[in-house]
Amino acid sequence: MSFMLRLASVTMALALLVSANASPASAQQELTPKQTQIVKTVNTVFTAAQADDTTLFDSVLAPNFYIFDGGARFNGDSIMAFIKAQHRAGKRYEWSITEPDVHISGKTAWIAYINKGRITDASGTIDQQWLESAFLEKQAGSWKIVFMHSTRVPMASQKDRKQ
To answer: What is the rounded distance in angstroms from the CA atom of residue 120 to the CA atom of residue 44?
Structure first.
């Protein structure tokens, strides 16, 4: 076998080996039970907000919780007041955690995910995505959300991502 043919064979074998072990950025992370607890904790925020359930909402928040959303800083009370006002104005939100990337280190954890949802009002329903993250601490045996961040994905970027 000539040197060039052997070099091409080795290069091809290495390329196949690397591609077999690489995972695409959009691949779903296999979650451990502890990581699943983090996802469930964050999902509780969405469940509570959709139902205007302040007690459930507060049950997963740390006392010093805050969120950056829509270019503003909110605490737990102010974000729930904002959501309730949106509901009174006829807006409904659906949120869904997708592609969670969860990291746990002792009594702290962080999660980054794509929130795929919908916004419905009198004019109709539009699909919407947000890039979001949260930082959590284990307090008295339960995970509590200390900080969240949400950035709305512009509609043009959502279309590009689907292609």
So the answer is: 21
Q: What is the pTM of this model?
A: 0.78
For 163, half-sphere exposure in the C-beta direction (CA atoms, 13 angstrom radius) is 5
Domains in the chain: ranges and CATH: 32-162 (3.10.450.50)
How far apart CA 112 and CA 148 sit, in angstroms, is: 10
Q: What is the pLDDT of residues 118-137, one digit of tens each?
A: 999 999 999 999 999 999 99
> What tokens appear for 16 in the block?
């196949």
